[in-house]
Each structure stands twice: as structure tokens, then as C-alpha cells.
Amino acid sequence: MAKAISRKSASADMPKSSFMKKLRGQKQLMFMSLPIVVYILVFSYYPIWGWTMAFQDYSPAKALSEQKWVGFKHFAFLFTDDAFLRVLRNTVAMSLINMILGFVTAILFALLLNEIKGRFFKRTIQTVSYLPHFLSWIIVTGIVATSLSVDGGIINVVLMKLGFISEPIMWLSIPKYFWGIVGASHVWKELGWNAIIYLAAITSIDPSQYEAAEIDGANRYHKMMFITLPGIKSIVVILLIMNMGWMLEAGFEVQYLLGNGVVVDWSQTIDIFVLKYGLQIGNYSLATAAGIFKTLVSITLIFAANSIAKRLGEDRLI
Amino acid sequence: MNTKKIRVEPIVFHTLNGLLMIAIAVITLYPFLNTFAVSMNAGNDTIRGGIYLWPRVWTDQNYRAVFANGHLLNAFWISVARTVIATVLSLFLTSMLAYTLSRKDYVLRKPITILVVLTMYFSAGLIPTYFLMKDLHLVGNFLVYIVPGLISAFNMIVIRTYIQTLPEGLIESAKIDGAGDFRTFISIILPLCQPVLATVALFVAVGQWNSWFDTFLYASSKQNLSTLQFELMKLLSSSMNLNSSIASSSGADPSAAAQNMVTPVSIRAAITIVASVPILMVYPFMQKYFVHGLQLGSVKE
Asked: Which chain A residue has its CA at the smallest distance from B27's CA?
């Protein structure tokens, strides 16, 4: 990315006098952008100073000079702490499940929706499919909890009518179902939204490829396998790699809202750990250390993903 | 044999595929229709179960209870206020920054772009951010809904990419006419950016309207700053408790509350509908914009 920018702004390298003249001519541009730069420095960069808390036994009552510095004590504690290792496992597991389910369902949905011939029908389905994306997780988890409830929840009602189960299951109280429920909730919420980009990629495939294949006697499945899927391969690869970077971003809202005391060992993520230790228990240093760990891993993964993508010859990434 | 196969296969495929699509639409829509039915049904009747798509005992008591309850009404207006104010401000500031960073000759273009784009990759984290809000006296202050999220790097990139597709000549001819950058931005760029601004406005407004975590973190002790989503969240977590204070203290119709016409379950359904209707009314019309906007965003630099 940096390279791309430097190439474009190469015109900035010019003799000093004309540079100063240019600077004066760009007063308005600076007036328009520099206040926003200050704002970004304050809200996004300045708080990083707070990372020092992770290396102290921080106490809000004391001044900075009185804080006790403890080095990597909190980080060392995290990696021997069963509770932290558990939330780390939950975070990685849930983001993998969400990612794989999300990709497979969105691609399948895009492929099948693309086969629909009626324009009005296709548009209607697509519009309906976007809807849950715009709803808050509060509403969605409310819907999930209602649908899974033991007294009259639609899932239990349907499963019982079909004879799969003889009595209602308390889905949200059984730890082994929690990850699956979170994954399914994500699919329900984001299916249509995630498919947008694939549908756009499919429509940009040259139609003459399909015509040529038809002449060669290809059927629907051949065309899907050998034209459509390869046609969207590059966008799939990009998105897959980029999503790797968000491995520790399993989210927080769903798990916080759907979790309960019974499933707590399987539901809590790093973000919930930070919230609990930081703002509820008041162990700011430990919570900040966990937050730093998450950020550093994410940055590493994102830059690794970027360089992999670059090596694969995909240059559309940041 | 062969011709017969060709004729049958498409019919089978299209029928099954059509049915699958209808099934997806049903699974997506059913929970809303069910919630709507519950919200229009008398609370004490809903407890008996069996409400699916149609109310059994029609009533508007649940909605009356929502809008007669001072807390909920106030939360509704706070949600509206934060959404409108933050969307307008964010749109203006983000597009102004995007305009300056779209000017290829701007000398600070490169450092500012890097500074902004980097914010997509890291965050200081919950605890340091919380302390910053505290130091800025934003905790327990309405401004905490507006100020922290005004500039998003992603939205900035989407708008900047769009501005770069506009013909360069427009800006040059404005310059020749003696317009400064600010006037060029206001009177030429902004009006031309309508499609992309519609997309970003939708993203920002939906994010604001749906937000509850900032209320939870920074204003949970201030009832007068509560939002609709936060009230809904409180109801969700107390939904086991049947005679919650909201249902019994609702000023709509004391006798109705006494008869349990209004229950937490029915109130929750009514709030859910109130919280989703604005979105339901807006997003279908924005479809062509956000589909395009999403593509712009994925083709970053």
C-alpha cells in the first residue's frame, strides 16, 4: 500500500521554493484536514499510551510516578491462567466456525440465486436476505432466544412435529451447542449481505464464456464448476485471507447476549474477559494485557495475510 | 433419451432451487412476522402459547405501553437524536477529509492517508479507551454517542474512491472560476457524491441506531441517556422475570396492566418492532447504493 501511495505522490518531490508556494496554495486543504487529523490522533492514537497499564500494577488512585512497574507479570499470568486459555480457545473456535460457515453458505447462496431466472423473484429474495444484516445483535439474539425457547420456540415446535425429538431441548443451556448456535446466528444475520460481493463478481463474468461452454455441451454444473467458481476465485481468496486477519475478532455481542451461567466456559471470548476483568473486577492491568495480546496478534495476522495475498498476485488489498 | 433428460433436468432444478430460495426467505422473515403478531396480541393471551403468524386477541396496548412509558419514550428520542446528529456530522467530516485526500497534489496526502488507514488495523482496546472517555468528561454525557466514532477509515476510503472517479476537469474549472478548495468541496463535490454519501449515511445511521454497548459502558447509570436498544437489552436479560417494572408501571392503562394485558414478552415484541421499523422502511430503497458502495470499499487503493 505504502508503495502505491508513494508512486502517486511522487510529484511532491520538487524544488523547495515551489514546494513552499504549493504549501501556501493548499492552506484550505490543510484547514479542512488537519483538525480531523488532531481528532484521529486524540481518539485513536493517544489511548495507546494506556498500554503502559499492562506493565504496572495499575491503581487509578495513584499518579503515574507512583505506579509500580511489574514488567511482563500480567502477560505471564495470562498464559498460565486457565480462564484466559479457555476464552482464547473459544474465540479462535468461534471465529473459525463463523468464517467457514459464512463463506460456504454465502458462496452457495450466490451461486444458486444467480440461477434464478425471474428478475422480480430474484430481487425480492435478495432484498429479504439483506434485512437481518441491518438489525442489531440485541434484536437478533432476542429472536434467536425466542426461537430456541422451550415453551413454544419455533425450533422445538418444528422438531417435535417432525418427530425428531420427543420433548423440547433447552438449546441455550447445553454447552456443546453454543458454538453452533453462534455460527448459525451469524449465518442467519449475514447470509445475504456476505453474498453481495460474490453476486457482483458473478455478474462481471464474461457471458460469452458460458455460451462457448454451452456449445461444447457443458451442463449447469459444469458451468458452475468450471466458469463461475473460477471466475469468483480471486475475490474468494482475498476475502478468505483477509478474514484470517480477524481471527481473534469472534465478536462480543452475540456471546455476551446469548451466554448464560451454564454455558459460560464455552461462550466467553477475549473481549468478554477484558470487560469482566477490567470494568467489573477492576483489574485494569490484566484486562489491558489481554487487550494488547489480541491487538498484536490481529496486526501480525493482518500483515501476514496481506503479504500472502500480494505473493498470490492479488493487488486489490489495502 | 438424451433430449428427454435435457427437458426434465431444468424443471427439477429450477423448482427445487426456487423452493430453497423461498425457504430462505421464510426463515428470514418468519421471526419478524411472529414478533409482530406477538406485539399485536394481548400479553396475557400470548403466555398461553400458540401465536405464530397471526394475533389471537388483537390489541394496541403493547404499543401504547411503550409510548406511554416515560423511560422508553425518552430512550426513543435519544436514539433518534444520536442517529441524526452523528450521521450528519460524520458524513460531513468524513467526506471533507476524503476530498482533501483525493487531491493528488496535496502535499500532506501521503502521511495523513497512512495515519487514517492504520486506524483500521489496531485499537487501543477497551480499558484505555474507557479512561480516555473519562478524562474527556464524556462518561455520562450525551456527546459520548457522537464524538468518538465520527471518522471511520473504511467510510473515508469508500468516499475517496468515489471522488477519484469524478472527472478531474470539474475541479480544475472550479479553480479557474476562483473557487477555493472548501467551496469546490461544498458546491461541486458534495452534490456529485450523493450516491456514495447515501451508502455511508446508511452505514453510519444503522450503526448508531443499533448501538447499545456505548450506553452500557458509558451511560448505564443515567436513565435519561438510555437508548431504545439498551432498554431492549435490559428487557431481554430480565425476560424471565414476568412482572417486571416496565410492564406493571406502564402508564398506558392501569387496568390493562393489572389484567396482565401487557407483559414483558409483549412489550419486548413491541419495542423490537419499533426498533426495526425505521430500518425496514429505509434499506430497500438504498439497495442500489449500498451494493455499489460495498464494491467501492472492496477495491481499496
From this structure: A188
Cα(A232)–Cα(B298) distance, integer angstroms: 14
Helix axes A82-114, A175-203, angle to 10 degrees: 40
Residue A212 has pLDDT above 60, yes or no: yes
Whether the CB of A50 is below 8 Å from some CB of chain B: the reply is yes
Tell me what the mean pLDDT of segment A50-68 comes to.
87
User: Is A316 near chain B, with CB under 8 Å?
Assistant: yes
Please tell me if residue B156 touches chain A, with a CB cutoff of 8 Å.
Answer: no
- Inter-chain touch B128–A143, beta carbons under 8 Å: no
B195 Cα to chain A: minimum distance (Å)? 17
Which of B107, B212, B217 faces A26 most closely, judged by CB atoms?
Answer: B107
Task: Report d(CA A132, CA B27) in Å as an integer.
Answer: 11
Q: Inspect the interface and report whether the beta carbons of A316 and B299 lie closer than 8 Å.
A: yes
Evaluate whether B200 touches B156 at the Cβ level (below 8 Å). Answer: no
Q: Which amino acid is located at B245 in the chain?
A: S
Our CA-based measurement puts residue B256 at a distance from the nearest CA of chain A, in whole angstroms, of 24
Alpha carbon distance B134, B120 (integer Å): 23
Over residues A172-179, the mean pLDDT reads: 94
Q: Is A50 within 8 Å of A36 (Cβ atoms)?
A: no
Burial grade of B241 (CB within 10 A; 0-12, 13-18, 19 or more): exposed
| Of residues A113, A134, A253, nearest to B279 (C-beta) | A134
A to B CB pairs, distance under 8 Å? 247
Closest CB to B13: pick one of A41, A136, A220: A220
Residue A50's closest CA among B130, B137, B120, B136? B130
Nearest CA in chain A to B97: A33
Residues with pLDDT less than 70, chain B: 1-6, 238-260, 296-301
User: Given the C-alpha cell 452475540, which residue does it identify?
Assistant: A254
ipTM: 0.87
Q: Which of A63-77, A233-247, A288-302 is least confident?
A: A233-247
Pull the grid cell for residue B10: 431444468
CB A228, CB A204: distance < 8 Å: no
- How far is Cα of residue B183 from the mean position of the Cα atoms in its chain? 31
Nearest CA in chain B to A14: B107
Sequence-separated (6 or more) residues with CB below 8 Å from residue B215? B145, B225, B226, B227, B229, B230
The answer to whether A257 contacts B236, with C-beta atoms less than 8 Å apart, is: yes
Q: Tell me, what's the pLDDT at B5? A: 54
- pTM of the shown model: 0.88
Shortest distance, CA B297 to any CA of chain A (angstroms) = 10
Q: Which residues contact A104 (CB under 8 A, 6 or more apart)?
A: none
Residue identified by cell 437508548 is B227
Give the best-scoring range by mean pLDDT among A8-17, A308-317, B226-235. B226-235
Distance of alpha carbon B267 from alpha carbon B67, whole angstroms: 11
Q: What are the C-alpha distances in Å from B41 to residues A88, A113, A158, B246?
A: 44, 36, 22, 18
| Cα-Cα-Cα-Cα dihedral sign, residues A247, A253, A258, A262 | positive
